Amino acid sequence: MAKRRNADVESDEADKKRVTKEGFRKALSIFRFVRPYRVQYIIGFVFLILSAGTTMSFGLLIGQITSVIQGKSAYTLNQVTLFFVGVLVAQAIFSFFRIYFFSQVSERAMADVRRATYSKIITLPIPFFEQRRVGELTSRISADVSQLQDVLTLTVAELFRQVATLVIGTAIIFYVSWKLTLFMLGTFPVIIIAAIFFGKFIRKLSKRAQDYLAEANVVVEETLQSVNIVKAFTNERLEIHRYGSALQRVVSTALHAAKYRGVFVSFIIFALFGGIIGVVWYGGSLVLHNEMPFSDLLTFIVYTTFIGGSVAGMGDLYAQLQKTVGSSERILEILGEASEVNADDELPLFVPVQGNIQFDDIKFSYPARPDIPVLKGVSLDVAAGRKIALVGQSGAGKSTLVQLLMRYYNLSGGRISIDGRDLNTFNITELRKNIAVVPQEVILFGGTIMENIQYGRLGASEADVREAARKANALNFIESFPDGFKTIVGERGVKLSGGQRQRIAIARAILKDPAILVLDEATSSLDAESEQLVQSALDELMQNRTTIIIAHRLATIRKVDRIYVLREGQIAESGTHDELALLEDGVYANLVRLQFEPIS
Ligand SMILES: Nc1ncnc2c1ncn2[C@@H]1O[C@H](COP(=O)(O)OP(=O)(O)OP(=O)(O)O)[C@@H](O)[C@H]1O
Prior knowledge:
With 600 residues, this protein is an alpha/beta fold. The protein has helices at 2-29, 38-69, 77-122, 126-131, 134-176, 178-185, 188-225, 227-232, 236-288, 294-335, 398-405, 428-433, 449-454, 462-471, 475-480, 498-512, 528-542, 577-582, 587-596; strands spanning 357-364, 375-382, 387-392, 413-418, 421-422, 435-438, 447-448, 488-489, 516-520, 546-550, 562-567, 570-575.
């Protein structure tokens, strides 16, 4: 038993190592987003080297000034000071260009990462969205990309500068006094061992804090998105509390990490300054014994502080890089998912279908709940131009059938075909262009009414949009707004009524003009006048189209060619309204009775 556990622990360890290595490899591959801007990157780097070089020369200049003061230099104080000022000006100019070019690279590259991530997310299949929360996905695009931003340019540049400072600084002090350098380097191993030991530990803690922060943000996202539900249930306090405790977890984890970071940083500072005191002591005795001029000692001390600073900074940079590995892993994970459509591909040639639909022994379970069969062998045919209705109790599988027609999910069994062609042989864009959906709950995007109708066919002319709106019985109310088609709707605009929104959705569908139409009937009923306007708009829309109606109110489907009654994932009955209504003890007959019988 103990042996087994040991083996487990070992394989865990191996996993960790592999993941970190893999992580670094992946993090590096995110650099492909920097590649298009490599010219600016290289220019930025040149300025970085120049500005690092000028900073490095300060130590030498301080040594020079000391020699001048001691009267041991060939130059005058003014000459050296003037040179000093010149170096300072150069340093300022170099720094400006360094920041300017690096920002160009980082801003542009990050916009590219965001664009790539967004176009990947939006083209992913529906099941992907069922496994993630919206908050989590938005934080990929905002927080994780921001984390990358600094690292791709500044941190890498900074790391380079620190390493350069370390190498050049050490070379200079070695040149100034090798004895003192060896003495100084003696203090290094302690710092390095501490950095490795603590660094690992602190990283783990910071990552946990970051995860908790993402969780807290999910609370904000979700509640703000559905703020009216929160208010309707007067659950503001509950949500404040939920957010508060999520934040509390962030704070306590971050503080826990801060404690160790504090210990780490103060230890490093202590060790560094301890080293400097040692150097001053040893260097002072070398000066006293005339083995080294005083100006060299000053130069030496200045470079030692540079080197110390870069070593201390490197720990932080390393932690920063570690965080980035996590972020880039998460982004690359999304970028690596398989899209259902490729946003960069050319749109396939649109081939209109006639609209013969065939569902053949469809079996289906949702990927999120694979053990629960939702459809258990459903077969139905709709000839082109015919209208059918799906009825059945809530949860019977009506919407599921339509989602499968849209190919939002893969079938577990059976076959769907359009005009005799298997659905899977269609390009997904081509398929969906042939289907219009008028959904139960119409969501309008922020923008004008014109844009919202054009969503049905991008680039449609204003005249076409007008005509579609007229056919959808929407022209009157649109023109009653002072701004007409330019009226802004959506979150920040005019709120439209349910019936008005439905007519906009109908206009969208008319503009799209597909052979197949799916009507997901609104469950909430409209007032009589609105109902009549919507109904006549729908009649117009349904003309000459294969139509599948997901019916909730049976009154609206009397005229359809065939009604299918779904029960527990199977077709229980099918026929016209008149046939089904007469079936004694039939499911449909019972539903009709329930809906139309006056409540006594
Ligand atoms: N995305 C999903 N993941 C997992 N299960 C789902 C999903 N969507 C629906 N279901 C389940 O599948 C079953 C059929 O749902 P469906 O939405 O097709 O029913 P419906 O007949 O359209 O109901 P309603 O009339 O209420 O819209 C239900 O039991 C539902 O819980």
